[in-house]
């Protein structure tokens, strides 16, 4: 399938999930992540979910990171440049939803992209080769291409992978892993 068809398919599948299912699936994903060998790093980039899009609730992952005393980085999107700026999440960070319903820091301590060790990546769909599909604006592909070469890119999904995404671009950045409620998939890059 191509990206357009996959976006439609997975938005529909997500829309059918109840709040209880989202909570259970998000907890299962966090529990899988807790068992991974990725916790020796310092800076972890986390997305805050767009509730109206029924994205994975990252609150459980946030608790794991805080419990392990990790530096948590969140982003603010600039829709004019399709770029993201990154900030340290602290007790004083004020979060506000932007016009697209994305929770973002109002301000804070900037974190240079080269300091980020692990990125938890939102997605709509992905394939067995680690290619992912987001909403199509390219924010994460741009951000991930700016990260250091050894950054660990971990997609989070309610669903298992598609066999192949037909229209992958050279600028699309592949995942290293994708975590679902049922599995940890590792991709050969």
Automatic annotation (TrEMBL):
Q: Which cofactor does it need?
A: Mg(2+)
**UniProt keyword ATP-binding, yes or no:** yes
Pfam families xrefs: 5-FTHF_cyc-lig (PF01812)
Record keywords: Nucleus included?
A: no
This enzyme catalyses:
(6S)-5-formyl-5,6,7,8-tetrahydrofolate + ATP = (6R)-5,10-methenyltetrahydrofolate + ADP + phosphate
Family affiliation: Belongs to the 5-formyltetrahydrofolate cyclo-ligase family.
Instruction: Give the protein name, as stated in the record.
Output: 5-formyltetrahydrofolate cyclo-ligase
Q: From which organism does this entry originate?
A: Flavobacterium chuncheonense
